Amino acid sequence: MKKTILALTALAAFATMPHTAMAQSSGKTISKVGSSCPSGFSSSSSKCVSQGDAVAVHKVGGSSCPSGFTSSGGNKYCVSTKSGQKVRLKGSSSCPSGYESSGSNKYCIK
User: Fold this and answer.
1) Tens digit of pLDDT for each residue in 20-73?
2) The dihedral sign for the CA sequence 57, 33, 76, 62
3) Smallest Cα–Cα separation from 39: which of 51, 26, 24, 25?
4) Kindly report the CA angle at 91 between 64 and 94, in degrees rounded to 5?
5) How many Cβ atoms from other residues are within 10 Å of residue 36's Cβ?
C-alpha cells in the first residue's frame, strides 16, 4: 500500500509539471517524441542523436519554428538550417541575455 501511494504521489507531481519543463531539451541529443527522429538525427533508444552539426528542439504545440529552423520528424521537432545556431524553449519568462524571442514567441534563439 505504501509503495502504491508513493508511486501515485510521484506520478501526480510529474503530471503537474509545466509542459515546458518536460520539453526543455535541445541540442545535438534530444529525447525522442514517439518513434521518429528529425531529419539528420538517428535513433538511439529513447534519444535522437545528431549526425552532423544540426541542433533540434521539440516543437511547441501548433507554433511555428524559430527563425533559422525548419519543421521535421512528423512536425514534432524544429531543426537548425545552419551550423552554430542555439535554441531553447522560452517558457513563461523572457529570453536570457544574448538571446532573442522567435517562433510565435515560444523560443529563444542566439
Assistant:
1) 333 345 689 999 999 999 999 999 999 999 999 899 999 988 789 999 999 999
2) negative
3) 51
4) 100
5) 15
Question: Could you tell me the three cell numbers for 63?
Answer: 507554433
The whole-angstrom separation of Cα 60 and Cα 76 is 8
Secondary structure of the chain as H, E, C letters: CHHHHHHHHHHHHHHCCCHHHHCCCEECEEECECCECCCCEEEECCEEEECCCCCEEECCCCCCCCCCEEEECCCCEEEECCCCCCEEECCCCCCCCCCEEECCCCEEEC
For the chain, the straight-line distance linking the first and the last C-alpha, in angstroms and rounded, comes to 50
Q: What is the pTM of this model?
A: 0.72
